[in-house]
Amino acid sequence: FWKFSTFSNPNPLPWLNPLFRIGSKRRLEEDDMYKVLPEDGSKRLGEELQSYWDQEVEKATKELRTPKLTKAMIRCYWRSYAVLGVFTLIEEMIKVIQPVFLGKLILYFESYNPDNAELYEAYGYAAGVSLSTLGLALLHHLYFYHVQRAGMKIRIAMCHMIYRKALCLSATAMGQTTTGQIVNLLSNDVNKFDEVTIFLHFLWVAPLQAAAVIGLLWQEIGASCLAGMAVLFFLMPLQTIFGKLFSKYRSKTAAFTDSRIRTMNEVVSGIRIIKMYAWEKPFAALVNDVRRKEISKIMSSSYLRGLNMASFFAANKIILFVTFTVYVLVGYKISASRVFVAVSLYSAVRLTVTLFFPAAIEKVSESCLWSFSLMQKFLLLDELVKAHVPLTQEDKKEASVEIQDLICYWDKVSSLLIFTSLLQSSLLSTVLEELPAEKGVIKVKGELTYASQQPWVFPGTIRSNILFGKELQPQRYESVLRACALKRDMELLPDGDLTVIGDRGATLSGGQKARVNLARAVYQDADIYLLDDPLSAVDAEVGRHLFEQCICGILKEKPRILVTHQLQYLKAADQILVLKEGHMVARGTYSELQQSGVDFTSLLKKDEEEEGEKEEAPRSPRNRTISQNSVRSHSSSVLSAEPVHTMAEETRTEGTIGLRMYWKYFRAGANVIMLILFVLLNLLAFYILHDWWLSYWATEQRKLDFHSTNITANGTNGTNTNQELNLDFYLGVYAGLTGATIIFGFMRSLFMFNALVSSAETLHNRMFNSILRTPVRFFDINPIGRILNRFAKDIGHLDSLLPWTFVDFIQVFLQIIGVVAVASSVIPWILIPVLPLLISFLFLRRYFLRTSRDVKRIESTTRSPVFSHLSSSLQGLCTIRAFKAEERFQQTFDAHQDLHSEAWFLFLTTSRWFAVRLDGMCSVFVTITAFGCLLLKDSMKAGDVGLALSYAVTLMGMFQWGVRQSAEVENMMTSVERVVEYTELESEAPWETQKRPPPDWPNRGLITFDKVNFSYSSDGPVVLKNISAMFRPREKVGIVGRTGAGKSSLISALFRLMEPEGKIIVDGVLTSEIGLHDLRQKMSIIPQDPMLFTGTMRKNLDPFSQHSDHDLWKALEEVQLKAAVEELPNKLETELAESGSNFSVGQRQLVCLARAILRKNRILIIDEATANVDPRTDELIQKTIRDKFKECTVLTIAHRLNTIIDSDRILVLDAGRIQEYDAPHVLLQNQNGIFYKMVQQTGKAEVASLLQTAKQVSRAQETGELILLAGPAGADRRGFKHTST
């Protein structure tokens, strides 16, 4: 259908008409868009530019210089782009010729003689004026359409290259950049190409046009034109200086924006922890601090923009004033034809010289210097090069991994202590070639697949996550689901395995993510399986099932390398490798290692017989074991499943933006008095009086000349012959009007920018505060990309684009009203054709906006998946590369880009469709005015004709620009709408209330649950049902239950992450009556996923700066991190990498423990904190908890029974209800109880060990009880705790 879109067609872009018809009837959907053209496809464009970039890199390497991205781009695009210069050259030539026709026409009126036969000539000039407006209309849009499409192509190609590069970044390179920076490249920096291509040709067209205009002006008004041109050329460097300054501010702003988005990314990712720690205020301070700096730069650059725009609108008036003042003072007399030819020529050149030329310089400097350098720097980062050796059938049969004398470094620069959990993962990273070997040999025969330690899922269905690009083989797929204990979950999900999971798998629980992650690896029919601790995130029963049915079941014929801390599985291993502090300590079978006497055996369970002999020997209360379930193959149906949050659809509002939204927007930045002042300024800064005075002056001069001529002709001699106009008066008024226009114009511009940027600041703060105060549920059902899109793209619009567009629209709109007012005052009957034109314009605008708004909204919503796909790919980089899925992910990215391109391309073409029709209307208006003047030639004054026609001609580009700006304002107001939507989110309870608990509360740590029900949303299922329980002061309580039993929900209820029904009382205070911060600050939690934030180590430990250095070092020493932190370059002031990624999981968990030590609270909650850490770290954590928190009430959620068997009491949950709650020893007496069964499932040796510990704890408690009973009356009977042994 492209062949029909030529602009010679009387119906330009006819293929868009069906789309507009659909858009006028109903809301447009993605299916309504046209498929992207083959030559605009992401893959094709990206590969083309990539090949030029590769050539440039190769060439630069030979010439020993840095590769230049600009060179690659120029080589790729210069031919197609250079051709477009012809359009703009012809367009600018017409702009220069048109005033000549206009001058001749006015001259006809000046020397008007009814008997003269020059009328046909005048009609010719009128036709010239009309046809040149029509030519301008067509050429202008043809040029703009093509340059914008060129910009789009470069942007698409760049995005393709950035994503391709992101997929092959090495570990070192990942340390030099962050997800936030890469997302920012894609969301902000590449958009510069859309802007720079528009103006680039004006760098050479503008000087040519200026030269032509000077030539024509010299003919009209002689040397006086040089004064005007001098002002014009003085304004040009001034605008360029503005451009340079603007660029400087822009780069500073960009750095702050980067920083703000990065912090926001962390806040949104870690919101659960921030809320539990009650750390909203320090994070708010952090974001507000960056935002304040960002806004101060934005405000400065907006003032510059304001001055720039005001000077652009005032330029014409200043130039004319200077030109005609010189012209008159030199002794010439003013005439209408000279005035209005000069007016038209100046306005033709002014746009090019003072707007497009400086814009070209500004965009080129901004794009080339800043954005290009960022992209170039990113494209030059280190890549991970994997040796792809083709595998023979022989290799596949004898699959193996061989390692000799291996030495590796994660990052040679930082000397961090790496714990064993990271070491084992490092070994797998080396096998996967993620970590380059410094020395030694590693040989892999066979195809690898990998399940990562931190489970990774990408946005899509559960099925697509498991298949990961492989064909669906129903039988194999079913057996994998069964082996990975996912069958039951699939049955309970609303859409089974076709349920869509959101960003970072937000809709799944940790256990479900881990099982999907494992299922993905198992489904790939590989030769060697690398499994990085897949059992740590699931409970004992499921863990045993996965080990037996999956690792030793479905995979039993394949070589498997399993990293684990769960030692009870070691007997099943053919070969065991023990790593300690980066060295291999031992290697061999289970029995060989036991006989070797390596320190390793102290970690291992003793054989069952040994266990029997030493039954009576006292055992350290904590030895790592795991509650296990010897589940047979059928039992996967018995495994309990968990609730799943489904993702909310992104809202897309319909219809027009109401006046209320504009009112909210203005009121956010200005009060009512300021708004009234704004209206007054607009009226005062009316530009028309200035030109009207020139016209009036020329007419008076003409009358005087005519009068003088008549007197002379009649031969009368008198004093009247030398009569002249009072120059002082006319010049004085002219100067006054010029000055007033300029002053009020500047005031209006600055005032508006100030108000609109203030609005952006206020709305951002409201949105951020609203996000901080909204319940956690909001983050579970909204992907990170969606929330960040509001803070990046939408706030970006509010900060810079919307204020500029709005001010521009207001100024243009006032000028349009002025033009029509002038024309109708000169030729009153012109209002007759203006009326139908106005009606058809209003209809067209409404017709266009319905479709355009939908296209713009679709463009916004199709942009989100591009960012989501990028950030989820960065999170799962290791997995994607291990599965060799880079190509497929690149294709998915290209598909997301193509969908966005469809919307963007429609946005471009619909804008042109509308603009061409508007300019068509304007040329009708110009034609009517031109010929109308000739029809009424007898009653017309030359000055009036000049004023009406020169104004009508300026309407050409201006009218469609004004209307498109009004549509653009309305489109951008959708960003305001989206931000306002997030400022009105549901809020959780207040952080502080009138009722404050006593300062030392809670001083005992008594927690009572009284008939508590809990649900994650008002319409969601109840996950805790009628819970009543008491946790006594200083008591250690273990909370167990299968996955989905409600263990974490109990903690959520205690922290009021959603409001529970019923009563929770802590030390006599009803928690629902006090503020959330008063509650949450008084309880410490060590969470399941340890979270560190970008910032210093000090900020991570103590964001409120409440503790001395001595306290901080002491806490670090107690968790054995002091040495690691001392080795950091700036110790406590060292900036951590994004999400603390330069620490291992174990170390991050220890930092969380140090935070808990510093808080010195009476209540500590441990949420499966040791699930992902090695035995050594676990033992350290358990020991610290026993020593440091012996005066506290400790609630521990655990999958592993050995971590809680020495608790005072154990609470057993099942399906949200309390099933059992008593001392472990008592629970083990009840052979029908759930806890007894859980213990029995762990194997004989483990059962004996657990029983032994339970007895010891029981005996210790009895002894303590007796000792205390002999104490004074009223002694606290629980005071013996853990001291009496």
Brief synopsis:
The chain has 1285 residues and is α/β, with parallel strands linked by helices.
Describe the structure.
The chain has 1285 residues and is of the alpha/beta class. The protein contains 42 helices and 21 strands. Strands 15-18-19-12-20-21 form a six-stranded mixed sheet. It has a four-stranded antiparallel sheet with strand order 11-10-13-14, with helices on one face. Strands 3-6-7 form a three-stranded parallel sheet, with helices on both faces. Helix 5 runs antiparallel to helix 8 and helix 29 (831-875) packs parallel to helix 32 (942-983). It is elongated. The termini are far apart. The model is unreliable at 1-8, 410-422, 603-644 and 1265-1285 (pLDDT under 50).
Characteristics:
single chain, 1285 residues, alpha/beta, six-stranded mixed β-sheet, four-stranded antiparallel β-sheet, elongated, disordered C terminus
Rounded mean pLDDT is 79
The helical percent reads 55-70%
Q: Strand content of the residues, in percent?
A: 5-15%
Shape: elongated
Distance between the termini: 87 Å
Please give the number of β-strands.
Answer: 21
List unreliable stretches of 5+ residues. Answer: 1-8, 410-422, 603-644, 1265-1285
Largest sheet: 6 strands, mixed
Question: What's the helix count?
Answer: 42
Strand order of the largest sheet: 15-18-19-12-20-21
State Rg. Answer: 38 Å
> Which structural class do the helices and strands define?
alpha/beta
